[in-house]
Design brief:
205 residues, alpha+beta, 2 domains, four-stranded antiparallel beta sheet
């Protein structure tokens, strides 16, 4: 779970962002902007971050506030799971990222697998929908839902990318150091269970 202060700021930012989307009265707009400024100050203070950078991040969000959508591709080969090592932190994760406007979640999962690993796949099943805040990840200032798709390997070869510097398949008892911001050991264990029980239904928070 997020720290209490971060949970509060996410909810306050959502109120400010949504309010600015619908407010017509100039004084209401000023109040919502002031609330957003306070949220930026709290995040910068607790996270020891640059206030201008945080403020720019928050003001860049517009429209009715809803959770962001991310996807991850779950690819097995000979009972080993595909993982990629992230260049920015040197830790391993499932290939994945944000869903782009104009593409379906399944298409996004296939694209992310190819971009980050070099492998071509087909999305076969939605395994899980996780609320990122409920799975012990490192904190983010936004609310995120992650959709995990079982993807069948159909071609390609291991090829690092701009975001990844290593690609490999791992057995459950030989996992490398994981990126806590992207995937947890508990989630990986659950994916191996899904692999052993392909008839299991999609799970969700």
């Amino acid at each position: 779970m997020d720290p209490t202060w971060l949970d509060w700021t996410k909810r306050l930012q959502a109120i400010a962002q949504t309010g600015l989307s619908y407010a017509n009265d100039v004084y209401d707009v000023e109040r919502y902007e002031a609330l957003r400024d306070i949220v930026a100050e709290v995040i910068a203070g607790y996270a020891d971050a640059d206030l201008r950078e945080i403020h720019g991040l928050l003001t860049g969000e517009a429209g009715h506030a809803t959770p962001k959508v991310a996807v991850q591709g779950v690819v097995f080969q000979d009972d080993r799971l595909l993982l990629v090592r992230q260049r920015d932190e040197g830790a391993w994760s499932l290939p994945g990222g944000w869903v782009d406007v104009g593409e379906s979640p399944g298409e996004a999962a296939v694209r992310e697998v190819h971009e980050e690993s070099g492998f071509r796949t087909e999305a076969r099943k939605l395994l899980a929908v996780y609320d990122r805040d409920r799975h012990g990840h490192t904190p983010l200032p936004f609310h995120v839902y992650t959709l995990l798709f079982s993807c069948e390997l159909i071609g390609g070869e291991a090829t690092p990318s701009v975001e990844t510097d290593a690609v490999d398949f791992f057995a459950e008892d030989a996992l490398p150091g994981l990126s806590a911001g992207r995937v947890t050991a508990k989630q990986i264990a659950r994916l191996f269970e899904h692999h052993c029980h392909p008839g299991w239904p999609t799970e969700f928070d």
